[in-house]
Write a structure and sequence with these properties.
Elements lengths: L9 H29 L3 H40 L18 H17 L4 H13 L3 H14 L1
Helix pairs in contact: 1-2, 2-5, 3-4, 4-5
InterPro entries: TPR-like_helical_dom_sf (IPR011990)
Keywords: Membrane, Transmembrane, Transmembrane helix
């Protein structure tokens, strides 16, 4: 690979593979739903229509997640270009897990940065990674969504 060329992230490859499998599922379920609607039987038509709701919901949720992922990647690229990405220098266990006490101790400055500048997507982005390091994935995703909304 040429110097400076970017390789696709393993996470992206995994997401694409899972999305392709999900697309196959959506196609199969939607096909069954359409077949049921074509029967003309009122009860079967109702079940077929209900079966179509699931694939539509899946497609909508996937679109939302991919949009968030691309926006988060753009934010990461911008932070990397300006040297503003958070540095992962927290101590780890022999198994590779981040030391919880160290993550909790490092969390404070990121929280204070968001309190000082609540409209800064950069501060929210860094807070998301502090939450993730502390093991709080739910709040990490919420902070990334907030950063994305401010971006």
């Amino acid at each position: 690979m040429a110097h400076g060329a970017r390789r696709p992230a393993r996470g992206l490859v995994g997401a694409v593979v899972v999305t392709m499998l999900l697309a196959l599922y959506v196609w199969a379920v939607a096909g069954r739903g359409i077949s049921m609607i074509r029967t003309g039987e009122p009860l079967v038509v109702a079940i077929g229509a209900a079966a179509l709701i699931i694939p539509l919901l899946v497609v909508g949720l996937i679109a939302v997640e991919f949009r968030l992922a691309t926006r988060v990647q753009r934010m990461a690229d911008e932070l990397a270009a300006s040297g503003g990405l958070p540095v992962d220098d927290l101590p780890r266990s022999p198994g590779g897990r981040i030391d919880k006490a160290a993550a909790d101790a490092a969390f404070g400055p990121y929280r204070e940065a968001v309190e000082a500048a609540p409209d800064s997507w950069r501060a929210w982005y860094r807070l998301a990674f502090a939450y993730d390091a502390a093991g709080d994935r739910k709040r990490a995703r919420a902070a990334l969504r907030q950063a994305s909304a401010l971006y």
